[in-house]
Amino acid sequence: SKNKQTATMFIPEGFKGDIVAWAVDNVEWESDKKSPNGYISENEEHHQNTADIKIERPHTDRKDNKGRDLYNDTVELTVTVSDPQTGIRDVEWTAPDKNGGVDIDNEGGLTNRKGEDDKWTAEDSDKERNILTKAVNKIQISKNDNGNEVNVLMHDYTGNIKSSKDEFSIDTLKPDIKVEGITESNTVQYFNTHKTAKVRIVERNFTAPVVNGSADTGFTHDPSTPEDADTTAYIKDFNFNSDGRYKLDLTETDPAG
User: Fold this and answer.
1) pTM, two decimal places
2) Closest to 202 (Cα-Cα) out of 228, 225, 223, 175
3) Is 153 exposed, middle or buried, given 0-12, 13-18 or 19+ CB atoms closer than 10 A?
4) DSSP 3-state assignment of 50?
């Protein structure tokens, strides 16, 4: 027949599956069935509830001077992105001194890895037809600094965005202690005048040092040095003004161990 008819179908948000259409004439002859290669609809709310980005790293009980997790060596992050509804379109990430990302092609394959740390992998079971629903990568972070921030962002095939952030610190330097006014000695030294020992401890993640067996909370930040940096210093004067025998035994251990 030359008569043409049209039909409108409304697809609900959150639908995922196949749509099949065909025509039936008045004598019940059926046309060929037509179907796209699957159909997916998703709104922002559903995306935020189902898509996920996990940034995992080894457990640590150590904390820096602002309560962030603290490590004393390179940290390996395991990043897992997933979108079980519409699939992953691409991933971008930034970290101290590096960045990267990966694209997903129209067949659901990982492509265009953008950095040396982009060794993304996916299992066959994480593919649905031509979409990829899950991918995993490992990133090495070695910057010796407090507050290392890692950001991961994922786009899906409907244009929705999911993001996640992680923050931690790495301290690979030992505390540096300098004493002026007296010299280190394992034997008794004698003086005929008062002495002042000026102690200076350079340490980003400073904790009260142990002085003669007890924690000494009397150290103050040296205002000539920045805070939260490898050159951050804390100072205290020890005055020996009276006749007597004195001992100055000082140990500083930072939270990173």
Assistant:
1) 0.78
2) 175
3) middle
4) helix
